[in-house]
Design brief:
The structure is a single chain. This protein is 62% helix and 0% strand. The protein has 281 residues and is mainly α. It has a domain of 185 residues.
Amino acid sequence: MHSSDNVIELIEAFGQLMSREEIEFGAEPLAGLHVAGMMLFMLHHNDLASTQVQRTLFMQRCFDYMACTEETHVHELCTQILSLLDLNQSDNMLNLILCCRNASTLGTMAQIVSSCLLWAMLDKLTDLGFDEYRLRPYSELMMAIAMVNPLVYLQNYLHSLNLIVRVIAGLLIAGPYGSTEKLRNEVGVPQDMLEFPNADAAVLFRWLNTIVEELRDELQLRDAHVQERMIILETSCELMKLVHAHLAEFYQRMYSIGDFEDDGFVSDQQCDNDTDFEWLL
């Protein structure tokens, strides 16, 4: 197994270990299995499309193997996973974000672990001060947004801003903008833990709009950062559309018709409820 570079052979070898239950229960051995599943899912090789189904099913099987959603176990599991990955390398963090986004739809255990890892990465990027890896109320996203001034980050921390936008998108897809039925019914997660308040979503939308408007003004710049600006613009617009789709009725109540732009998005105008985000206005 260790000498093979064939993805299917590696998947089959790990599958045999799981079938014989040779991988013991515990945070450390299971973390190694989860990381293997994620690494094989992300592994670059010829003809990625032909192995997409096998790689996805294998990652799902890794998360489901001896799954335990008890909070202490999940914390210890995430601690071990993060110890195996060097998130000081931005490429590693980007790969983990993309992997968590894909894994979060594969099952209950994958959804919980992916969410906890995404919260951990948001904490690392914005220094929120979290001391344990667990599911969190989505209103806590507002702490990160309040700490990240897009105007400052666009001038000095482009790559970090790209990662922050991607993490927030991943968290919303893994929670309130995805399927939460199993988390509520099988794990007993309270409904309010899985909701993203509309008022907070409106602030997030305008935070993203600030990024997009600023980037539109900077697109004419032809320097070493033009490609990264385009990537941030794309990811920000993708998340804006996601938030907008879940807020259409809320916006109709909150704004007058005149506040809508021709493209259907809400204009970046002051809202009386945003006193904590004055830099955004």
